[in-house]
Design goal:
This protein is of the alpha+beta class. It has helices at about 5-25, 35-50, 115-120, and strands spanning about 55-60, 65-70, 75-80, 85, 95, 125-135, 140-145, 150-155, 165-169.
């Protein structure tokens, strides 16, 4: 029996590598625009200086919206990031307050953040991914997912793509 144990360990290790390879293949299906969240924030920080506060950053296949918190969190300056270029800001918007975060709070894995959704709902479309400010500078990641039938879900995921809640809209 002791002679068979190393063989079984090798089979288990081989199976784990196969599962990891499949996960990596699934991760390759993540939309390219997910990376625009960090690129857009980087462009804003290059324009305005490091250490900006953000209310929300939302990316979709066409563009990325960035809402920079200003005036002690009572206003937001909206930016558009399109085709790798940061557009001039729109006029400031008055806001009733809300949670904000800094760039370093964005910790999601670009290849995993949508992997569970893409795997579990393969016939659905991820329309957007938002990073929203939470208490004490934290963030939450919310994907807007549309089914073939037209229903829409807000799916909150962790930085690793683990689904934490689903809200039908």
């Amino acid at each position: 029996m002791t002679e068979r144990l190393p063989g079984r360990r090798l089979l288990v290790i081989a199976a784990l590598f196969a599962v990891a390879a499949c996960a990596a293949d699934d991760a390759a299906d993540a939309p390219d625009w997910v990376g625009d969240i960090r690129r857009a924030v980087g462009a804003v920080e290059s324009e305005r200086g490091a250490g900006q506060e953000y209310f929300e950053v939302t990316a979709n296949p066409q563009l990325t919206n960035v809402f920079v918190a200003v005036e002690n969190g009572t206003a937001a300056i909206p930016y558009l990031y399109v085709d790798g270029t940061l557009e001039d800001p729109a006029p400031a918007l008055d806001v009733a307050g809300g949670h904000s975060f800094r760039a370093d709070a964005i910790t999601f894995d670009e290849h995993l953040v949508l992997a569970s959704i893409l795997t579990e709902l393969p016939s659905s479309t991820v329309d957007s991914l938002s990073v929203e400010g939470g208490p004490d500078g934290s963030v939450r990641y919310v994907a807007s997912v549309r089914s073939e039938a037209g229903g829409v879900l807000d799916v909150v995921v962790g930085a690793d793509g683990a689904v934490t809640s689903v809200t039908p809209l």
